[in-house]
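Sample pair:
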Amino acid sequence: MQQYKNLIVIGTSHISIESIKTVREKILKIKPNIIALELDKRRFLSLMYSKKEKTKLSDIKKVGLSGFLFNILGAWAEKKLGKLVGVPPGSEMKEATKAAHEVKADIALIDQDITITLKKLSKRISFKEKSYFIYEILKGLFVKSPKLEFDLKKVPSPKVVKKMTDHVKKYYPSIYLTLIKERNEYMAKALYKLITINPDKTILAVVGAGHEEEIIRLVKQCKA
């Protein structure tokens, strides 16, 4: 958890029971006026009201083939990991929303529209990145994986987060640019706007642990 002016940022794991407990405890203790979530409207409705749109081949026209496939594989992987620990992906966001109602806080959605993100990824991802991605999948299927460096039930440490981020940056530069760097910038601007418009209100943001430090750094750099 980090703080800057009237902004508090909590880094979470989307499939961690620890994150669910931490988010709830912090919200009930701090009683923020606004709770900002690492979600866009589409994903928020899907998560909270089970309004998940069925995946259709026509979606390829909206986001491109690479973005379409990446979205399916990413959702599948996160769901599989969630089953391992018994926590559905995004549970900490649902808990934050529930706690927000309890303390009468407003909800702010600060992430970029997922369609825009996936469309950008489709245009940028290279053949080399796709090839390495397939290699890592096959390697995971046929080669015994080493023990994970962190407990899936807990939020990864800053050291582990950095190691994973550096791996993505090195081998998947397009994914790093689109899913991490640009989204950090987008969310930082949204949070800066919130704290500027609401200087007398406490704002608590719930974001993935991989975004926490960079978002705080970027918010500090923002100018009116």
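The two ends are 25 Å apart (CA to CA).
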